[in-house]
Specification:
The complex is a heterodimer of chains A (159) and B (168).
Chain A: E1 3-5, E2 9-15, E3 21-28, H1 34-48, E4 55-67, E5 81-88, E6 95-101, H2 124-135, E7 148-156
Chain B: E1 3-5, E2 8-16, E3 22-30, H1 35-50, E4 56-68, E5 82-90, E6 95-101, H2 119-129, E7 135-136, E8 143-153
The chains are: A alpha+beta (159), B alpha+beta (168).
Chain lengths: 159, 168
């Protein structure tokens, strides 16, 4: 397992009069800090806007780590089998929801009222995943940290 | 109109199953998380993800985003399919091409060439090629000068077709 950091990219999104969108993406130097990358998106926006009839509406700085020797996927696995985990946050009625494609079929309950739907949270790998997620730097799209697992279910999510 | 940063950065794992179908697993980190910290955390979290899925992890991508919360309307008649194509030379003697959607008509000469003396075009080119600019090609080589610039139209995609295109 060897991961290579690819060249980061700076991109802007433009909108035209028909509501169609397009992006323009350039490469940035390796090691560019995120703040500098977003600042570069701002620079790009400032010089592109006078040169276009479209409207620049968003900017993005992206870094990608690519696996050089990916493992072979397990036999029988299907990406549309999703494991959905819902976590509570410190804010009432605010949750963190994550979905993992290709959930292992042996992680789903086979007995009881949750059979075929609920993920078996007594399995060590599931418990370790939940603990690692809560302990990590992860949050909701609004910046709220996960506090505890609320539900873990199996869903079919076609691509 | 205010340009602001999203409160979270997006971390996305790309996965593939045995049939070749792709899947993504998306997480968020606070926007002030350093890129190195977030990528290191993604690498550390990866084994826990792989223990739950039959898919193979191909890559993970970290994106920091900003947006205009009240953008002015685009100019009437603007079209993203009308591209300003800019070909830049790199310090390694190669070229890289970027396309600017909706290039202004005032920057286009009669032949279809883009006027590099146009102020807006000159500012754009300078921002890309000036010393100290972070922009480079996909191998990390600096972009040094403009080689060519011209108008080019790209076909309209199915999703970009007008939804009211049936006659009334």
């Amino acid at each position: 397992m060897a991961v290579t950091l690819l060249q980061p990219t700076v991109g802007i999104t433009l909108l035209d009069a028909t509501a169609s969108m397009a992006t323009m993406q350039l490469n940035a130097a390796q090691g560019t800090p995120a703040a500098a990358g977003l600042a570069a998106a701002g620079v790009l926006r400032s010089v592109v806007q006078p040169a276009t009839t479209c409207r620049v509406v968003a900017g993005r700085f992206t870094l990608t780590a690519s696996e050089q020797s990916p493992a072979a996927p397990a036999a029988g696995g299907r990406a549309w089998r999703a494991g959905v985990f819902i976590f509570t946050t410190a804010e009432p009625d605010q949750y963190v929801l994550i979905s993992i494609p290709g959930l292992r079929s042996d992680l789903v309950l086979t007995t009881g009222p949750g059979a075929g739907v609920e993920i078996d949270i007594t399995i060590t790998a599931v418990q370790d995943f939940i603990a690692a997620f809560i302990a990590g730097p992860w949050c909701s799209p609004f910046g709220l940290a996960p506090v505890a697992l609320l539900a873990a279910i199996y869903q079919v999510r076609p691509a | 109109m205010a340009w602001q940063e999203k409160p979270s950065a997006s971390l996305t794992y790309s996965l593939k199953d045995e049939t070749g179908s792709n899947g993504v697993f998306s997480l968020d980190v606070p926007a002030d998380t350093l890129a190195d910290v977030a990528l290191t955390a993604a690498g550390a979290f990866r084994p826990f993800v792989e223990a739950l899925t039959d898919c193979a992890v191909l890559s993970y991508t970290l994106s920091y985003s900003s947006f205009d919360d009240a953008p002015p309307a685009p100019a009437a008649g603007s079209r993203v399919e009308k591209k300003g194509t800019f070909v830049f030379r790199t310090a390694a003697g190669k070229t890289v091409t970027y396309q600017l959607p909706g290039i202004i008509q005032g920057a286009i000469l009669g032949s279809g060439r883009i006027d590099d003396d146009n102020l807006a075009v000159a500012s754009f080119v300078t921002a890309i090629t000036e010393a100290g600019a972070i922009f480079c090609d996909s191998n990390g080589v600096d972009l040094t000068s403009l080689k060519a610039a011209y108008e080019r139209y790209r076909s309209t995609s199915r999703r970009q077709l007008p939804t009211d295109r049936a006659p009334d």
